[in-house]
Amino acid sequence: MVNKATAVFHWKRDTAGAETLCKEALEIDPLCDGAYAALGQMYLQVHDYEKAITAFRQLLDVSTNMGQIALALYHSYVSQSQSIYFGADACATIVNRSACQSHEELPCTRCSAEVR
What we know:
By secondary structure, the protein is an all-alpha fold. The protein has helices at residues 2-12, 15-28, 33-45, 49-62, 66-86.
């Protein structure tokens, strides 16, 4: 179910559908570390840093794989940093992490230009 959620998210860009599939997997197995990891990654990609932090912290609670724990800690701290730096509703203008062409800022604080 988690693999299907990942496919739905990446190929169909259906965040809600992927989230539902991951949550269904967690209803079946509340210790499904793959579902928490998938949710965390998905939330990062859509800039929902608070949910990403929650998912990665839940992953820390259920995982026994040291590599996965280290990765979850890393992503949790990165998510927290991005949430603090960009704000809770991270700027959607920094799609490809490039700077405003006019002012060379990321994100542009002078003109609020969308960066694509």
